[in-house]
Amino acid sequence: MDETTVLTFDIDDFVEEFSHCFTGECRVSVLPILYKISQINTNSADLARALPIILGVMRQHLKIQRGMVTLYDRHSGSIFIHDSFGLAEAEKTAGAYAPDGGVTARVVETGKAVVVQHQGGDADAEGASRRSSSRVKSAFFCVPIVHAKRVLGTIGAERVYMNPRLLRQDVELLAMVASMIAPAVELYLMENVDKVRQEHEARRIRAALKERFRPSNIIGNSKPMQDVYNLIEKVAATKATVLILGESGVGKELVANALHYNGATAEGPFVTSNCAALPENLAESELFGHEKGSFTGALALHKGCFEQADGGAIFLDEVGELSLSIQAKLLRVLQQRKFERVGGTRPVKVDVRIIAATNRNLAEMVERGTFREDLYYRLNVFPITVPPLRERGADVITLADHFVTCFSKENAKTIKRISTPALNMLMSYHWPGNVRELENVIERSVILSEDDVIHAYDLPPSLQTPNESGTAFGVSLESKLRAVEYEMIVEALKTSNGHIGDAAKELGLTRRMLGVRMERYGISYKSFRGADVRKWNADEA
Ligand SMILES: Nc1ncnc2c1ncn2[C@@H]1O[C@H](COP(=O)(O)OP(=O)(O)OP(=O)(O)O)[C@@H](O)[C@H]1O
């Protein structure tokens, strides 16, 4: 059976008790460690020099498997990993170590050391000792870094222990180290508070973006989209130039993000430049930057998108809109990975992955002479075509459901479903504006909906044609009113389980008036009783 024990200690007790390590058998093993630690010059107050020593001692001498130094920014109330070893990339990027189960936060809050011991498995299974058959204990322990009675951060460690006394010694050692580096941490936080906050924020944003642009967050399981996911998976890990093709609003930018955040450049910046939005005279400076004083208004050196993206990826959206002269400069970057800033003479070298997108037919543009052929071939190394929404079948419904969930949350609503007539309309519309249009349609309908259901009458007029609605009702005002009336009656009967009296009351009608209308639309109350209503709901789901 696995067991977990949590112990909390006052930090002063540890520091006082540390003296017992100078007696008996433990002195020999502790001496080299003390020698290393003595290299931390408390007066130098240089955290950058102290941290490698501390982490080195933890890893090499104390045989700790995962270690981290966290800092606490009291203004924002956030604790973040400043330096570490043995952590997974995702844990480092997220700036938090999940398996400690909130222990670090507790240490910061209370100023007391915490030891969490976990007993389970056997030594061989854990790989800790091939000789011993005793059960392995692993421990996560965390000591506060305290200065002038204020907690500034923590040192945390995790390792497997066969001997409880060793664990105690390690906690004592780290407690002593924490008190030694406390003045350096204090100074570091004072001098770098803005940098620390910005770094933490940048890391948090990168982690959030990575999560948001997981290919699995691109909604839709249709065959044409699965082909797109396969291509993303194949090319993401490489640094190959990718050209994303497809109509406006199909999700090309989403694919570009997925390529970056799931690929080789994920840890670097992702810079987007919308080529259509760049006026000819500014395009060069925007993409390649300019030197101070290179033209009127160039008051300072400006780094262009390519330089900003160094070490990461640049997304050239609507690349088909670039002028021929900028196309020539872009070709040079693609060939030589270098360029000059406007007004500059020195070449600037960059290491950037290029992802471009267009809704234009570039091959046709090449024939017409409006797009350079050599650039076209340089960009078209790995084309990915994102299909239009009208070719994605049931993805329309999956996407609609996804957007209903998103916009319900955003608008504090509890929309539960989309009615069958509304689904029919969504399915038979041709979606010239693709996913972007569907997203807007659903946002509007969520706002309009008054009863937790998206009805056909909540959809915009562009979708309300007889063919698209799939209903028997025409497009005149009279027909639309009948469509609304039909849906309201069906909803009221569903809510009342087929009781005409209750439904009539909800609709503000007499039983007789409702009966007449039900007859007109061929609606039977029996369909809303017991098993029948379940079937009706299942059909609607
Ligand atoms: N498969 C999808 N899953 C979820 N959201 C999507 C999907 N495809 C597109 N979207 C959303 O639709 C909107 C339009 O997508 P995006 O901007 O990526 O399209 P685009 O093809 O780049 O358009 P344009 O050519 O006009 O720049 C965005 O809000 C995007 O989040």
Query: What portion of the residues fall into strands of 2 or more residues?
Result: 15-25%
- The name of the CATH topology of the largest domain is Beta-Lactamase
By CATH reckoning, the class of the largest domain would read Alpha Beta
Radius of gyration: 32 Å
**Low-pLDDT ranges:** 21-25, 121-134, 466-474, 531-541
CATH-defined superfamily of the largest domain: GAF domain
Ions, cofactors, ligands: which are bound?
Answer: adenosine-5'-triphosphate
The number of helical elements comes to 22
Describe it for me?
This protein is α/β, with parallel strands linked by helices and 541 residues long. The protein has three domains: 3-199, Beta-Lactamase (2-Layer Sandwich), CATH 3.30.450; 215-385, P-loop containing nucleotide triphosphate hydrolases (Rossmann fold), CATH 3.40.50.300; 393-540, Helicase, Ruva Protein, domain 3. 48% of the residues lie in helices and 17% in strands. It contains 22 helices and 15 strands. It has helices spanning 11-17, 26-37, 47-61, 89-94, 103-110, 123-126, 164-212, 223-236, 252-261, 280-288, 305-308, 324-336, 362-368, 373-379, 395-410, 420-428, 434-448, 466-469, 477-495, 500-507, 511-521, 530-540; strands spanning 3-9, 66-73, 78-85, 113-122, 135-147, 150-161, 242-245, 270-274, 313-317, 338-340, 347-349, 353-358, 382-385, 417-418, 453-454. The strands form four sheets. The protein has a six-stranded antiparallel beta sheet, with helices on both faces. Helix 2 (26-37) runs antiparallel to helix 3 and helix 12 crosses helix 14. The longest helix has 49 residues, at 164-212. The protein is flat. The relative contact order is 0.07. Residues 21-25, 121-134, 466-474 and 531-541 have low confidence and may be disordered. Adenosine-5'-triphosphate is lined by residues 218-220, 246, 248-254, 317, 359, 399, 435-436, 439.
